[in-house]
Each structure stands twice: as structure tokens, then as C-alpha cells.
Amino acid sequence: MMEKRPVVEMRNIKKNFGGVQALRGVDLVLYKNEVLGLVGDNAAGKSTLMKVLSGAYIPDEGEIFIEGNRVELASPMHARQLGIEMVYQDLALADNLDVAANVFLGRELCRRKIGPLSILDKHAMEQETTRLLDRLKIDIPSVRANVEKLSGGQRQAIAIARATAFNTRVTIMDEPTAALSVAASRKVLDLVRELKAQGNSIIIISHRLEDIYQVSDRLIVLRQGRKVCECPVVGGLDEFREQVLAYIIGARDDFAGGGQEGS
């Protein structure tokens, strides 16, 4: 059996904000074609760890490897160039623009340039957006529809589509189903499954353990800036929820006294 190779490997990541230790030596491995759930209570370090991976924060210590190559991520643009995209909870969509313009926001296609002016190739962007949405099985009435007129689930789908449109290796989703209806959440989770089926590697931050259970292959639990559990997602939902909550609140700790640095 061929050994799985990591797409991303983070080793001993530490990050302080003044006197606050947000990350206390965290390790994380993500494999190709895998969905990794990342959970923990508020201030556990989940978003901080992912902002390090997406280039928004520079770690105080630790190493990051992409496809086995050590990298020093200097900015979100640098991370994006290496194929790492993060979909934030606020989505960062431009409500006054249509779907195609949002997908290509910051990466617009131009027909030609006249001095400092560029003439956008709207037709090509609409065609590419339509192909992308069809490939991901995203149901949007028109790529010319303004994003402000879309539902919460459709807006989340557009943000995810934009993140995966440009040779993305890793897609990070921060609370992708927060504030969505049950039906909209189901569609977003179906989109996660579709991305995985097409070979994507995905990290999901979520407080909704049912969502993590439904789509994740493995799970990492953080507490107070430390990794306290790493395990495959197996068993029944009730058992899964009970065990994960025990790690989140501190009733269990697989790494106590072990490879992760304490407080």
C-alpha cells in the first residue's frame, strides 16, 4: 500500500500576542484528498493556526512544509500563490458585484490594455464562472446576478468556488455553515464532499460537530493553544460528540505531558 504524502505539514507552530500564548507548539498534517476537521472552544487557537497557514500571521517559531518543501509564508498573497486559500466567516464578497465578478475579484481577465486602463473580458469571466459552478454542482440562477440578492447558502458556495478556482491545493473554511439554515448547510456540506471527490484537500473550522462528523476524515482538537487530540472520525454520532466534547472542555487530553508544549 502506497504511503500517503502530506500536502501540508506544520511543525511546532508557536504564536504569541504580547503576553498571550495563542499557539503553544502545534503540529498539523493534511493529506491530499482529505477533509480535516479543526475544533475547539473559543480562543483555543483554531483561527490563529489557520491564519498562520494562510499567511495572515507569521509564526514566532515552527516550520511549514507544502508538498514536502519548507516555506516561509510572508503574506496571504504568497500563500495563495502556493495554492492555499482561506474562506473567512464573513466571506469577503462584494455585494454590489455579480457572481462572475466576485469569482474573479482581484484576478480579472482583460481583453486588452490601453495605457493604465484595462478593458475587462466579461464574457470570458462569465464562461469560466459557469464552467466552475457546473463542475462543483452549484445551483445559481445566473452568473450575472448580484451577490446581494443570493441566499446565505448560495453566497457561501460562491466564496468557496472562488477559493478553489485557481489551482488551489488547500482550501480552509472558517465556520462555513454558521448562521445557515439546515437546508443551506446541507448544500454546503455536499459541496465539501464534491471538492474532496475532485481531489481537493480541505480544512474545516467549525463549532458544529455534526458537520465535522458528516464530512471529515480526521479530527484535531485544540485547547488553550495546544493540540489535545488527533484521531479519525469513526463510530456513531453520539459517541463522537461525547468524546470530542470531553477533549474540548479538558476532561480528556491525549497529549498531556507529551509532545505538545504545556502552559
Draw up the topology in text.
Blueprint lengths: L5 E12 L2 E12 L3 E5 L6 H8 L7 E6 L2 E3 L4 H6 L2 E4 L11 H5 L6 E5 L2 E4 L1 H14 L16 H12 L6 E5 L7 H16 L3 E5 L3 H7 L2 E6 L2 E7 L4 H13 L14
Parallel strand pairs: 3-10, 3-11, 6-9, 9-10
Antiparallel strand pairs: 1-2, 1-4, 4-5, 7-8, 11-12
Explain what this protein looks like in three dimensions.
By secondary structure, the chain is α/β, with parallel strands linked by helices. About 30% of the residues lie in helices and about 30% in strands. It has eight helices and twelve strands. It has helices at about 45-55, 75-80, 100-105, 120-135, 150-165, 180-195, 210-215, 235-250, and strands at about 5-15, 20-30, 35-40, 60-65, 70, 85, 110-115, 115-120, 170-175, 200-205, 220-225, 225-230. A six-stranded mixed beta sheet has the order 6-9-10-3-11-12, sandwiched between helices. A four-stranded antiparallel beta sheet has the order 2-1-4-5, with helices on one face.
